[in-house]
Amino acid sequence: MSNKSSISIPVLFDGQAFRNDFINWYYHQKRDLPWRRTEDPYHIWVSEIMLQQTQVDTVIPYFKHFMNHYPTVYELAHADQQDVLKAWEGLGYYSRARNLHDAVKEVVSTYDGQVPSDKKELKKLKGVGSYTQGAILSIAFNQPEPAVDGNVMRVMSRILEIDEDIAKPKTKTVFEDIIREIISEEDPSAFNQGLMELGALICQPKNPKCDQCPVQSHCQAYAKGVQTELPIKTKAKKQKHETYFNLILRDDTGNYFIEKRPDDGLLAGLWQFPLYSQEKFTEVSLIEWLKQQYGVSIKITSHLGRVKHVFSHVIWEVDILEADIIDQDRPNMDGEWVDDELIKTYPLPNVQQKVLNKLI
Length: 360
Description:
- The structure is a single chain.
- The chain is an alpha+beta fold.
- The chain contains 14 helices and 7 strands.
- A 4-stranded mixed sheet has the order 4-1-6-5. It has a 3-stranded antiparallel sheet with strand order 3-2-7, with no helix packed on it.
- Residues 1-5 have low confidence and may be disordered.
- Residues 50-201 form the HhH-GPD domain.
- InterPro entries: A/G_AdeGlyc_MutY (IPR005760), DNA_glycosylase (IPR011257), Endonuclease3_FeS-loop_motif (IPR003651), Endouclease-III_FeS-bd_BS (IPR004035), HhH-GPD_domain (IPR003265), HhH_base_excis_C (IPR023170), HhH_motif (IPR000445), MIG/MutY (IPR044298).
- Its cofactor is [4Fe-4S] cluster.
């Protein structure tokens, strides 16, 4: 066992039988997913980035759409970032798209368009962490590298009865060491994908389907009846709440005003109706501030309700205010005026899609 890990594999654990049983199960039961029909490392890379924090069924249409637009690294590398964000629209966690775009540019400029098969070179690419690195190397290049995410830690916590807290970053290293020791040298692709598939279909967070599990006989937690008590995972901090006004400004032709979010931070580079914190403004003070800041007089004509959007760390509650500009032309604000059709060509985050649905 590697000296990096304090966890030892049980003496009676038969690694070879375990590998055989669940790799055979994987080949017979695996889902027919579009990224499993290829060994192209770029396609596998895109799928793994999309699958981070996103359900498989959600990813499938986005993956197909994205690959139609950008079938090779060259199309993606030469694309405008706004177009890339538009193709990603609705998938969330947009930093994934920006990092992927930057990394693919690096692949084209530095690696002659070839996704690196070298561990150290691959890790240099923006947005490629240890999990993505392991997934690409094992699935696309058949290298015996661990690809450890929450699914894998849950499965192996139960199989080997490991009570380490998987919410702690250092625990991931423990599981990577364990996977390195038991991974199939002959078929690391099926091994890693099999673990992912087992976690998705059988060894689920609640109510694992132990009666259907192909490796039940190898499971230490099942043998002791403690499978539902594992993995150990401390609860994350409670999400904070933030409230905003979304201002729907219309000019005399009925066009809307939208603005681009900053290039850094949450929802970077995406477009939105102007968003104002309710910690800073009331409706009355917002109207006054717009007059002082831009010399624009507005009249709120309707309240279109509230939308809610849950991010991983914060919950937004957004009150939608529809307003007309009074007695003047468009104000000198930094953004674009768009109609009902043109606005659909701009990359909007999910929360703004919810707002738009109230309007159109």
